[in-house]
């Protein structure tokens, strides 16, 4: 399968959106930055079974994120709404 990822510009946009959402949560008093272990495991399973999962690099070909990092944060979302 093709290992192409979004452009660096698009990946930066995705990261910026994530940082803004996480900062907004903290400012509003939600200090639960990390998703609980059960949520992380569910996210991981969904990602690993997704057609956009690049197993070799463990990245999402849709958003460009490294899955093992992305699943840890409560503010993270799947670019195709699987979680």
Can you walk me through this structure?
- With about 80 residues, this protein is mainly alpha-helical.
- The chain is built from 3 helices and 2 strands, in the order ααββα.
- Strands 1-2 form a two-stranded antiparallel ribbon.
- A hairpin with a 4-residue loop joins β1 and β2.
- The longest helix is centred in the first third of the chain and has 20 residues, at about 10-25.
- The protein starts with 7 loop residues before the first helix and ends in a 13-residue tail after the last helix.
For the biggest β-sheet, the strand order reads 1-2
**Amino-to-carboxy terminus distance:** 23 Å
Percent in helix: 40-55%
What value does the Rg take, in angstroms? 13 Å
What is the helix tally?
3
How many strands, which pairing sense, and closed or not: the largest β-sheet?
2 strands, antiparallel
* Classification by helices and strands: mainly alpha
Q: Find the count of extended strands (DSSP E, 2+ residues).
A: 2
Instruction: Tell me the quaternary state.
Output: single chain
Can you tell me the overall shape?
flat
Q: Provide the residue-averaged pLDDT.
A: 93
Give the topology string: H per helix, E per strand. HHEEH
Q: Beta fraction of the residues?
A: under 5%
């Amino acid at each position: 399968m093709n290992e192409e990822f979004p452009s660096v510009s698009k990946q930066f946009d995705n990261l910026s959106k994530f940082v803004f959402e996480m900062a907004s949560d903290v400012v509003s008093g939600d200090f639960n930055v990390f998703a609980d272990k059960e949520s992380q495991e569910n996210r991981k399973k969904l990602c690993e079974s997704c057609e956009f999962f690049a197993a070799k690099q463990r990245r999402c070909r849709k958003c460009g994120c490294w899955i093992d990092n992305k699943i840890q944060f409560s503010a993270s979302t799947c670019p195709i709404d699987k979680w």
